[in-house]
C-alpha cells in the first residue's frame, strides 16, 4: 500500500515526494512541512482552554528559570503569547524576566 502525498500548493504538481520532515515538489522546487498540510496541532492550557496567538495567560505554579536564580511567581500575567512547535510551546515576554519559552501545562488562559 503506497502513501498518497498531497499535490504541491504552489504549482499543483502531483509528483511531490517526502524528504526527511519536508514535502518537496520536483517541478518548482517548493518545500513545505507535512504538518502544514493537515490540521494544526491545538495547544491547550492546564485546564483545557484552547490557546491562540495574542492571548493573555497567568502562571499557575512557581517556575524556576533555567540557568538563573530567578523564579516566575504563581499569578504572573503574561500578555501577547505566541504559540510555537516544540516542548515549550509558548514564546512570550515575562514581566521582570524577559523573553522565554513556557509549557502550556503551567499556564491558564485569562478570559477577557
Automatic annotation (TrEMBL):
Pfam families hit by this protein: YjdM, Zn_Ribbon_YjdM
Domain Protein YjdM N-terminal: start-end pairs: 4-33
Residue intervals of the Protein YjdM C-terminal domain: 43-110
Superkingdom of source: Bacteria
Family: Belongs to the YjdM family.
Protein name: Alkylphosphonate utilization protein PhnA
Gene source species: Celeribacter indicus
Lineage, highest ranks first: Bacteria, Pseudomonadati, Pseudomonadota, Alphaproteobacteria, Rhodobacterales
